Amino acid sequence: MTASKRKKLLAGNWKMNMRLAEIEPFFTAFSAALRPGVSNHVDILFAAPFTQLHATLAATRARGFAAAAQNMHFEASGAFTGEVSAMMLTDIGIRTTLVGHSERRQYFAETDDSVAKKTITAISNAVTPVVCVGETLEERKSGATFQVVSHQLGAVLNALKNHGPVQNREGFYPGDLSDSIVIAYEPVWAIGTGLSATLEQAQEVHGFIRKVCDEILGSEFAVRARILYGGSANPANIAGLLSQPDIDGGLVGGASLKAADFAAMCNAAMS
Ligand code: PEP
Description:
By secondary structure, the chain is of the alpha/beta class. The chain has 12 helices and 8 strands.
């Protein structure tokens, strides 16, 4: 599969933003700024806080976009106060979640092990995990970028490899695992800083990620898997990023809160 055959995915990460009253006005403005037909060519996703998922789901469904969670627990149920399971997400119709976002790793003790467990639980429940990996500034400066990324990604892909085929409750075996997982490369130093990776830096790591995918899960997976870039992506730099051979979309924080900016980015993904 060539890069052009991988459908582009633009995913907004609203983080802990967007009050209920803001959701409909956001989507009215977003839809108005979107070029006709974009959502037929580009997958458009919004990762919202748990309490806003119902409203986000209703607003996105009506318009041909999708809603995602920002996190989930790897256990099915139990004494995990404050957590939400994959089944609870599917109960309300959510079929995608972020997993291992750097803010979860940094502030909420998310580890490679928990990210791997969440990935398997998500896929087992027919929820697509958007698995986030990326190095800190110190790690980049010390030349450890590839080591960090391969360690984070390796934990997930090796867990999947060791687990074998995953059967979810709809009886669906993801024979083609590449449709059941999305990878996001998010250099931590670029998130929310206004300092995006250069096109060369981003493509270099994306190419490396595809190589790691190939080594662990084989060439078919590597060629088909979608790899998003995240870290201060905006309307001015998105076209360049998306023109790179191994960048299949964006995970967008700050700019996804501005309807016109995010619509411009989705428009750019179609051209
Ligand atoms: C993110 O939170 O995943 C992100 C990429 O944020 P920002 O676009 O604001 O850097």
